[in-house]
Amino acid sequence: MNQSARRSLRRRLALVGVWSALTTALLLAGLAVYSSRAQQQLRVTTLGVLEEQRIGDAVIRGVMQQISIAGDPAPTRRSEQVARFDSVGSAVYEHLRGYLSRPLSTQERQQIERVKEEHQQLEVAARRVMSAASSTSSYSVDASADMRRHAFTLLDVLRDFVTMRERALESLVDTQADTMRRVTVSLVLLVAIFALAQVLVVARFVRRRVTMPLELFGEAVARVGAGDRDVRLPAASDQEFAQLADSFNAMSARLASARADLETRNSSLSEALAEVRTTKDELVRSETLSAIGRMTAGLAHELNNPLATVLASSELLASRLREGAAPTTAELDVHYVAPILHEARRARLLVRSLLQFARRGDSEVRPVPFRESLDVVTELRQFAFAAAGVRLEVAGFADACVMAERQHLQGVLLNVLNNALDALSNQVRDDGAVGVVRVDARREAASFVVTISDNGPGLRDPSRVFEAFYTTKDVGEGTGLGLALVDRFMTTFGGSVTAENIDGGGARFTLTFRLADPALLPASGCVTDHVPPLPTPVTTPVVVDSVFPMAPHAKVGAAPPRACVMVVDDEAPLLRAQDLLLRRLGVDVVLCGSVAEAQAALDVRHVHVVLCDVKMPAASGLVLYEWIEQHRPALVPRFAFVTGDVEAPELQRFASAHPTALIAKPFDVREYLEQVRRLLDAPPAAATR
Predict the structure, then answer these.
(1) Is the four-CA dihedral 515, 518, 519, 525 of positive or negative sign?
(2) Residue 558's pLDDT is what?
(3) Once rounded to an integer, what is the mean pLDDT over residues 528-553?
(4) Measured between alpha carbons, how far apart are the two ends of the chain, in Å?
């Protein structure tokens, strides 16, 4: 069937709608006519009742007036009394005739005739009363009594007539009501039958023209969804469904041709999706590992220092014993045993703190001592803060049991402290002030509020710092997930975290924890895995006496009798261990605890070799190397770094120029001394001062 031979479904539906509207209008018009007639009939009946009530009232009123006129004891004129009496009687008679014009039954007409007779007899008795009004004889009394008797009889007969009319009207009303009920029921049934017929006709039309084609279309769509690529819709008789069938068939054909291509791409898309998910997980792990990596990088240096002292002291002791010269008890204790014990214990505490941080706890949020986690993180990061020249201050506050997961709590503190450290490390202050990170805490009702503030440059946009992947660092220096993880962990704890800038400079992070319910705590308090704090690093200047000749403060300006080696390290035990080793080479040793001390000593001492640590508080060894390049270029070939991280990125330029001038901690004594000998034998670049 071609398109021109098909009819529009919209036109068919319009015709059905017009037919339904016309039939409904006709039915409603019939109902309106019937209702109007019923209302008119009810109005006529009501007016009839009112008219009969008016006639009855007029008759009774006229009779009472006639009795009153006839019984008037002092009429002005006899003729006027009679005229008034007759006038009222005529009106009563006319009213009674008005009843006769109504549709009355035979009994009712007989009753009204009795009323007329009684009224006539009443008038006769009343005229006798009026004619005998001037007489006081017994005749006048009898006439009055006769008038009253006829009046009461008239009222009784009239009342009986009214009662008969009321019954007739009530019967008429009942008949009309019954008729209305029957007609109403008939109309309701008629309307219901008409509506049902109309619904059936419309439903049949919609079923044939709309529902069945849609069902076929739905079945076809379901088959396509199930993978049937050959399904097609039959031709329809309506234009709209015919167009739909043509479009569906064309679409099905296109789907069939594209299905193969989609199937070939599906595997590659699945692989790409898996790669995206893996990348997302790796980014989250990368941020965590980045924080731990920066921490462990500094921790490796911290661990290499005591290990270097232990190894050097042990080898020195072994060498001394092999030489056959037994050291004295004091010398053994001061120079060998005490440094070994002190540094071994220090290394043990560092390892225990790292293990506690790395140990994976259960994921349950439970009461955790806050100060324990804070101590672990600050112990692991103290060297990083010291190396960056940033002071970490922890205010003295009582410990509190907070609701958290221990490892995640340590991660929260680590990320916030790292963020502050990075901000202060990248800042160059014109006023020369020292960067400070301060940790404070206070109790507020059922909460424990911790603030971590710094005097750095502040946050660029505090409202976005907790967004995932938001970072102000250069590409490759951060994933932007650290603070997002802080926000997620704090939410998991049932707490919150906010960030803001401080007036006058700096940033402040506020961590709000839930305090643990005392009823949930064991008798011993919070469950703790506390590690005793690390011993305070020795930061006092190294005192060099006669045991260590030619200290920086001794014999200023004197010409050195032997070769002189400068050792720069912030670890006093490691300085003493290297001094003992270098004395075996027969050289003088200058010990410096910082870059500033080394620069001051180089201004007044003739030094042949410089051995320098890299990571030190206030200024790193690279600062000293750059200063030597500018002010003591002759020492450049005789300069070596003694460090625990020879692969550090900041050492790449130096390592490429001097690949043999790196001594790794912990070092072997023999290799250490051989390296120093090579440096002593190296020719200077220029004459030294």
Answers:
(1) positive
(2) 42
(3) 38
(4) 111
Q: 592, 565 in Cβ contact below 8 A? A: no
**Strands 639-643, 609-612: parallel, antiparallel or unpaired by DSSP?**
parallel
User: 100: part of which helix (H) or strand (E)?
Assistant: helix 78-100
564-568: strand order across its sheet: 588-592, 564-568, 609-612, 639-643, 662-664
CA proximity to 493, closest of 478, 479, 480, 512 = 512
SS (H, E, C) 118-154: HHHHHHHHHHHHHHCCCCCCHHHHHHHHHHHHHHHHH
Residue 634 identity: A
From the list 76, 69, 77, 162, the residue with the least C-alpha distance to 123 is 69
What pLDDT digit, counting tens, does each position of 57-77 carry? 788 888 887 777 777 765 556
Q: How many CB atoms lie within 10 A of CB 33?
A: 10
Q: Which residue has the tokens 């692991």?
A: 380
Task: Write the single-letter amino acid at 592.
Answer: C
State the CB neighbour count (10 A cutoff) for residue 511.
Answer: 26
- Please list the residues that pair with 592 across neighbouring strands: 568
For residue 507, the cross-strand partners are: 454, 501
The predicted pLDDT at position 491 comes to 93
Q: What share of the chain is helix, strand, coil (3-state, %, to 5)?
A: 65, 10, 25
- Look up residue 332 and give its two tokens: 């053994």
Q: Measuring CA to CA, which residue among 306, 318, 326, 316 is closest to residue 672?
A: 316
What 3-state DSSP class applies to 565? strand
What are the tokens at 580? Answer: 């003992």
- Return the amino acid letter for 25: A
Longest dimension (CA), the chain: 188
Tokens 């929260």, residue located: 412
Determine which of 116-125, 377-386, 520-529, 534-543 has the lowest per-residue pLDDT on average.
534-543
3-state secondary structure of 497: strand
CA–CA gap between residue 227 and residue 171 (Å, rounded) = 78
Give the containing element (helix H, strand E) for 529.
none
Strands, E assignment, 606-661: 609-612, 639-643
Q: Compute the average pLDDT of residues 241-249.
A: 73
Do you find a cis peptide bond into 666, omega within 30 degrees of 0?
A: yes
Residues 552 and 601 sit within 8 Å (Cβ to Cβ): yes
Among 489, 481, 486, 482, which residue's Cα sits nearest to residue 365? 489
505: left (phi over 0), alpha (psi -120 to 50) or beta: left
CA distance 143 to 135: 11
DSSP-assigned beta bridge partners for residue 640: 611
∠ at Cα 27 (21, 28), nearest 5°? 85
Distance CA 141, CA 143 (A): 5
Closest among 571, 576, 563 to 593, alpha carbons compared: 571
Nearest to residue 658, comparing CAs of 628, 633, 680, 637? 637
Distance CA 535, CA 532 (A): 9
pLDDT single digits (tens) 122-145: 788 787 777 776 555 565 677 778
Q: Which residues of 215-227 are buried (b: 16+ CB within 10 A; e: fewer)?
A: ebbeebeeebeee
118 CB-contact burial (10 Å; exposed 0-12 / middle 13-18 / buried 19+):
buried
Contact 515, 401 (CB under 8 A): yes
CB 123 within 8 A of CB 66: yes
Nearest CA to 568 out of 603, 538, 607, 594 is that of 594
Distance CA 97, CA 113 (A): 10
pTM for this predicted structure: 0.42
* Rounded CA separation 155/122 (Å): 11
Question: Exposed e or buried b for every residue in 83-110, given b needs 16+ CB within 10 A?
Answer: ebbeebbebbbebbeebeeeebeeebee
Tell me the CA distances in angstroms from 276 to 107, 471, 483, one per residue in order: 108, 21, 22
**How far is residue 606's CA from residue 588's CA, in Å, rounded to a whole number?**
11
Tokens of 477: 């220096």
What tokens does 345 get? 């214990």
